[in-house]
Predict the structure of Phosphonate C-P lyase system protein PhnK.
Amino acid sequence: MNSEPILSVRKLEKRYGSFIGCTDVSFDVWPGEVVAIVGESGSGKTTLLNCISTRLERSSGEMRYRMRDGRFPDLAELTEAELRFLMRTDWGFVHQNPADGLRMRVSAGANVGERLMAIGDRNYGGIRRRATDWLERVEIASTRIDDSPVSFSGGMRQRLQIARNLVTHPRLIFMDEPTGGLDVSVQARVLDLLRMLVSDLNLSVIIVTHDLGVARLLSQRMIVMKSGRIVEQGLTDRVMDDPSHPYTQLLVASILEN
Ligand SMILES: Nc1ncnc2c1ncn2[C@@H]1O[C@H](COP(=O)(O)OP(=O)(O)OP(=O)(O)O)[C@@H](O)[C@H]1O
């Protein structure tokens, strides 16, 4: 594994008025690594993900990101243009509800192609070819390229959202319960696809999930949150097989009972 982290979070805190969303959160993410953030509802997972992806303003703490040129600035030091580059190109965001990450009124091909146009690509033939290629990579027949995602199943919409995110070759993807809204059989297919793409493209991923099975399947490292704080973090296999915090022991025991 590369010896320099792609993301470094230190003592991150987010307050909603006097209420704490998350606090004292510190961790690193390495290139090509999948980190799962797990915990019960209300533990602060989404707050943390939204702060790191700059969709929510933090209250205090540091978040440093490795730019493509090797610099490692705090995200607060970036210019508008640099932040736009991260949002449009270097980062992806896969939402639980595909409708939050797709434009439902334009075609599948346009959903993928417009991410390329947003970064200045104007070669329409080339854009359509790359969109077709990406639809095939996420197992959507290229004959559906002109159809709107309104006519797609939930699993197809989620796979389209993944294609839209990956077409710009991002280095870091944020995922918020990416299989949470899908039937179990459909979940398995999307998880398989994600696992394959993450490994093929050597992506760094931060995935929020309340499903320890998803965390085990996709992640190498796991961060367990409770009441806005990290209570345990470590290699996923170690945390699952030998949890040290009583809360993690409870979480792991609860999935073994099901
Ligand atoms: N906009 C907000 N204003 C006030 N409190 C908020 C806001 N958003 C979240 N919170 C509170 O912050 C805490 C953490 O919420 P968050 O949504 O991050 O948890 P979560 O672990 O992602 O939960 P879930 O799995 O249910 O989405 C909760 O107690 C929540 O009520």
